[in-house]
Amino acid sequence: xxxxxxxxxxxxxxxxxxxxxxxxxxxxxxxxxxxxxxxxxxxxxxxxxxxxxxxxxxxxxxxxxxxxxxxxxxxxxxxxxxxxxxxxxxxxxxxxxxxxxxxxxxxxxxxxxxxxxxxxxxxxxxxxxxxxxxxxxxxxxxxxxxxxxxxxxxxxxxxxxxxxxxxxxxxxxxxxxxxxxxxxxxxxxxxxxxxxxxxxxxxxxxxxxxxxxxxxxxxxxxxxxxxxxxxxxxxxxxxxxxxxxxxxxxxxxxxxxxxxxxxxxxxxxxxxxxxxxxxxxxxxxxxxxxxxxxxxxxxxxxxxxxxxxxxxxxxxxxxxxxxxxxxxxxxxxxxxxxxxxxxxxxxxxxxxxxxxxxxxxx
Length: 362
What we know:
Order of helices and strands: EEHHHEEEEEEEHEHEHEHHHEHEHEHH
Strand order of the largest sheet: 4-5-6-7-10-11-12-13-14-15
Number of helices: 13
GO biological process, one term: tRNA methylation
CATH superfamily of the largest domain: Aldolase class I
CATH topology of the largest domain: TIM Barrel
Pfam family, one: RlmN_N
Shape: elongated
Main location: cytoplasm
Binding site for [4Fe-4S] cluster: 125, 129, 132
Strand content: 15-25%
Helix content: 25-40%
Largest sheet: 10 strands, mixed
Cofactor: [4Fe-4S] cluster
Mean pLDDT: 90
Oligomer: single chain
Distance between the termini: 34 Å
Radius of gyration: 21 Å
Number of strands: 15
Number of domains: 2
């Protein structure tokens, strides 16, 4: 099984598919096509996700012939660690290099309730949010499902050294997950599967900037995955300034899609709201936000933004953050302030890549 990848220099490179891209049933189907018993798929999954081996030759309960066929048809996606930044609070940010030379970020965040991994779904991003380093240089390509899975495996291998485990996943790294929908969905099914990484659906969160057709589609998947919307504004004018996608997918239509999701799944949504000094962080903005989301089964996650040198936004003062939170609470909104992590490293999404790989982000 091979796929052609066109690089930025328009050279076509033939790449074997990552075995991490296959869901269990897909692997069973492949085995049957090659005259092998379907139960071998569970053995292979055990080697990949429980033992986390680095080479097909280590799959000692498989025949030599099967191991050779696996080696011939697939690759064990390897991510080369270019930079590993460790924060005093335990946060670790990885800059990984892909097979074609592009780079992505993955972040391990430590919480009282366990270890969370923030994964990337695209090399770069075309959404164009004016506060985000991820969009610098635009979109290069989508990640294959296996390249997303491999990020979690790579972090888990690092945690194996201290006998810890990844307990939750957030799909909030570089890129817009809903623009890489099929690969994202395959990733979700692989890491959620009990024979895979076995991470519970309610310990997985996917966030979108507001690709409305995909929100309806995701609602109809009826998965128990946590769902977040990058809102960042209390009205259309400010949201269009911060997030150009609002010009294509209007705020009223976005909220209608959110209501459909809630009615379809019975689950609440989270609204991510980054606070930008003097832009969207005043008491009147909080009052307007409360009116905007009134009646929606939701939670607001206030995010004190990390400073990005390539962007002009400034941090909201601490006392103003608390005023904003109190205004929402007084209006009956369920709200929390996201705990800051990695403030002593390149914590903002895309910031490490922008610093280390300037040729990708110009």
